[in-house]
## 1
Amino acid sequence: MARPAVLRKPLGFVGRYEHKPGAEKNRTHYCPGCGHGILHKLIAEALEDFEITDRAIMISPVGCSVFAYYYFNAGNLQVPHGRAPAVATAVSRANPHAVVMSYQGDGDLAAIGGNHIVQAANRGENIAVFFVNNAIYGMTGGQMAPTTIEGMKTTTTPYGRNPLTDGYPMKISELLDSLHAPVFIARTSLHDPANIRKTRAAVRKAIQYTIEKKGFSLVEVLSMCPSNWKMDAVSSQEWIRDVLIPVFPLGTLRDRGSEAVEMKRPVPTFDPAKVREVLGVGGGKQKALARRRVDPKYADPSIRIAGFGGQGILSAGTAIANVGLEYGYNVSWLPSYGPEMRGGTANCSVKIREGSIGEPEATQPTVVIAMNRPSMEKFEQILKPGGTLIYNSTLIEVEPGRKDVETWAVPITGIADGLGNTKVQSMVAVGAFAGVTGLFGLDDIKGLLPAMFESEAMVLLNEKAVEAGYDYVTGMRR
Amino acid sequence: MGEDRRYPFCEIDQEECKGCGLCVASCPAKVLEIDQGKLNSKGFHPSSYKGQGCLGCGNCFYTCPEPGAVTVYLKGYVPEEVK
Amino acid sequence: MMARKLMKGNYAAVCGAALAGCEAYYGYPITPASEIAEAAAAIFPKLGRTFLQAECETASINMVYGAAGCGKRVMTASSGPGISLKQEGLSYCAGSALPCVVVDVMRGGPGLGNIGPEQGDYNQVVKGGGHGNYRVIVLAPNSCQEMCDLTMLAFELADRYRNPVFVLTDGVIGQMMEAVELPEPVTIFPDKSGWAVRGTADTHHLINSIYLAHDELEWWNNELRKKYEEIEKNEVRFEEYMMDDAEYALIGYGCVSRVLRSAVEEGRSKGAKLGLLRPVTLFPFPSKRISELPDRGVKGILTVELSTGQMVHDVNLALCGKARSDFHYRVGGNLPSAAEILDRVSELYGV
Ligand SMILES: Cc1ncc(C[n+]2csc(CCOP(=O)(O)OP(=O)(O)O)c2C)c(N)n1
Ligand code: SF4
Ligand code: SF4
Ligand code: SF4
């Protein structure tokens, strides 16, 4: 990177601004003396010097630099107001080899996009953020920005910014410096050649770290907005020096480049074998279990299982649905979810059908499995006449109210407790369901347990539970 | 090639210039001025180099907000065509 | 074909995305869509793909914008309140012609409402809740299998038309489990090098929705409109059940269509000639098919929604006053039962 013998328009800019509408393709759209242009030049020079124009991607914000994409010899994305760090996050992850830069004003970054910059910084995204602090909204005509200083008159603080009603000027660099992840944070200024050179050094460092995949860098640049400050360009520089800098002290707040490690991003795979493996779906069609002859009364059951949270209501339903699926039936399982669960009750609907399943909710169940008293009282009412009610007689001491249904009092919790683990009451219920309806064979269910439970001990315990439930009801029948 | 006495020197693209005066203020040799007698197509009085005395410090180049308005030719610059 | 596996609709959508080559998921949790984020968090990293829990829905849709602008297949998912926040970004995606997939598992509203199933997002999704003249393609699955299949289709349509595509479903379909047969993974992807920004010399493209000159923006709006007309011509999808000799048509999408299917079956068993017309695409809407109903001998049309009258306006527009159009709804997380529908049918049509 030898110093060139000529200082000319850097190749980090495009030659003609073809994206700029109208005839004027050789001048920027910025006002005379605007700091944006200076910062643009420093960035463009670095893109050329680091030979990264090919892989540079610039994110243009909303603000006066909304048209940054007119100028930079890079891939360009123009994005919604304040969202540049979010967009940059995805762009950087999509193209880990690219040098992704986000360019934002103080309204864009500190107001509407305040959360996005904090979060991107906190994630340590591998991006370089150039943050133009001109203490005002330039593009919309001089309204207050989060960085507007106390007492400063803007079109929306016509009497001067009053901290008691409008808050205090936000110090973004200091704010971000409280986070763990960022690698480089500096505040510089454009108010004289020496400080422009310091800005240049900071810009280059931020880009260098991005090239080296060291993570998140931000350069906050105090920048002139002569138009909205209603001053000429040179007075604007003096105003930065005399008024802004005392509020926003310059300096490098953090430089952890030497400690930072190169960021690694995963390489996506689209290998069909790998995708299949990860989705956990084995190859060929599984062989369905041989169907059992079922009393028409129990065929195509519409099941409601209900109780309180912790009784394994949803898993009992899942198990029944899973077993039904293994017999080649169409099955559906629908939980009650949300606030109802927080109240401590749970219920689910399971349908097992020869044909296709319409409404998944068992609004008129043919089988209700009630694990506690409130559930029985609630759901026996919607049970279809002639339907089947299996209730947990350990916890339900009253008789069911319905007389037009078949009832099975099964001490489900008691049986589970007898096996030494209340938790298996859900599988006791499954066994009881199988025994009552004859829909599932005991050995068939047992054969499926290894796929449902991780440890051998759990498989054995649940085998016993299913068997106990099954035997209890078949014993009643006998 | 013998040393060209013009170097270093500053060249202003007066069409691109917006007459903001930042370069003038930045020049330690005070060899830049706003040409009040001239107007470019956009209606700005452009900056101009007085023709001699440039130190090649680069201040004007880095201070100018317009990408191509200022070019500074430093000592030892070899024009493209003779390279 | 792969074996059938019991899974939640939300999980199936992520399987569909993984199979379709979705390379990144950017989301924010919200019931009843959270399992989509959770499944993506579990599955995507194993495939080297990106999962990121963003700081909010606004961020996640803008991350989608970024990834889509880089030519990646990308998705996000949410529910009502989060979809409201995504509308800004969706308008930008549509305005910049970026393909992306958004899954909306609808819950009850307005405001925080509740997390029960509802279909109150129809207007904000199908009519485009963001600013400007744009449309999104909307697919409405009614089963776990379709959560997978239509999510895969969504990626394809998104790329084909360079437009956001919604998978619009509800808490029931998202939360329920059914057997799903996963199709083969997609291995051929469209070439996006002509417009996507990839951080290479030959992809110095611009992703942008700004057209300063009025004539240019008018031109761009016209281009978009042409695209939407093309979509309306090619992509209408619907499903009919027992419509051939139906005298009364029930119209509903998503979980409602399943209830209506049960109602049709029960009604038929009692001699009422009911049929079901279920829009699978909500934009484009099967308006033509609906407009033909009166000529097919349908005497009464009952639209059922989990919203207080949103899709029914599209049904009425299609019918243009040519036939009797009735409406029934439940909201707040409640579902109509098949019995309730049959009561309504007999009250309206005396069958
Ligand atoms: C959502 C949204 N809200 C408001 C605006 C209007 N707007 C455009 S630029 C801007 C402020 C930009 O100020 P700043 O980020 O400080 O940049 P500057 O113009 O000063 O460079 C606003 C509020 C918008 N485009 N989008
Ligand atoms: S309004 Fe201010 S920030 Fe915007 S271009 Fe003009 S001087 Fe620059
Ligand atoms: S290079 Fe330095 S001395 Fe020469 S004109 Fe520019 S500012 Fe003046
Ligand atoms: S700084 Fe640039 S734009 Fe301003 S007067 Fe000098 S040459 Fe012209």
## 2
Amino acid sequence: MLAARLLMDQGIHVECVNFHTGFCIQSHTGALRNPEPGAKPPRHDALHAAQLLGIKLHMVDIAEDYVRIVTDPKHGYGSNLNPCLDCKIFMVRKAWQLKEELGLHFLFTGEVIGQRPMSQRRENLPHIEREAGVEGWLLRPLCALRLKATEPEKRGWVDRKQLQGFNGRGRRPQMALAQQLGLHDYPSPAGGCCFLTDENYSRKLQDLWHSRGERQYTMDDILLLKAGRHLRPAAHFKVIVGRDETENHFLSGFRQQRWLLQAQGIPGPVLLLEGTPNEEDLTLACRLTARFGQGKLAPTVTVRVEYQGQEVLRSVTPLPADAIPDSWYI
Amino acid sequence: MESPAAPTPHADQTVDARRLLCPMPILRAETALRALPPGATLALLATDPGIQHDLPAWCQINGHALLELRQQGREWVGWVVKGG
Ligand code: SF4
């Protein structure tokens, strides 16, 4: 947002792009969990920023092509399953294509040298644009003074003197600049931007790949990894347990191809089961459903099991707490 | 006496983005609007509460008119008229 403003203040026409990878963190947690009473509804930061600046934002869905970036990154992963370098290169390429379609002249990003460990290391920045095939055409207005001049600067389209030389993890200089530019309600830049940098999420994705014996995923898979408690009682099936009403509702939307369990007549979670369970596994899943609900101390609980439009009722004893080993939790 | 229910605006096309998380409802709306002529109305169904902020913001920056955004329980319906 600040980078865009620095260029706009030079009279440059700016348009922005936001790529949807399927792993964007920001408002999902808000959408999936019951909001605090009186909490503001979640909002999409990039849309909000574009609205504040009064500029066009192109929202582009790259989720399908992005699968190969996540499953087979040439430059490997960061500390979790985040393929940041490959991701940046891929996005810069996509942004260049869009720039060509729109008839615009150069690319810019809001990156700052050293702000993030892998993709924003000084030595990696030139590498990104080289490998994306846009060398010299990617301007980084927030740290330009620490980098070689780009073509737009050399050609006099952008006044280098009005750019910045920010560096490192601290965000004070950016905040001061925002103040100076009169940008008050601007989206927080500090939050993680994608689930792939999240340790818990990455563990669940690893588990999914491991259980299937291949590194692949569908959009439903990665959405489901964002919600509920995940337990794997055996290699051939796992269960996802809703933690509140909103999650229960969300999980219910994924019942196709999965088993959906819920206690009858007693408040409790929705439990989704995926894999190839046998009768015994289904009984265990019913007992887990009872365990996580308000009937956990009742002698028996009736659980409704739905699969491919068919429903059956099973009466089970709730699983005792000490019968759920920690190793089941993914 | 009960007040009469608000009339439902006419829609040339309806996009069902229920169960999809932000920003998918907006992406679906954007794709659908691309195929419609200016002045056409799109109805967007969504369950992600983010739609309350995102739909008005998206309409504003793209020059579309948001006729109405109505909440019905856990769902929202937005009627968007495509800008010229
Ligand atoms: S954090 Fe996620 S979106 Fe950001 S560069 Fe890394 S992989 Fe890409």
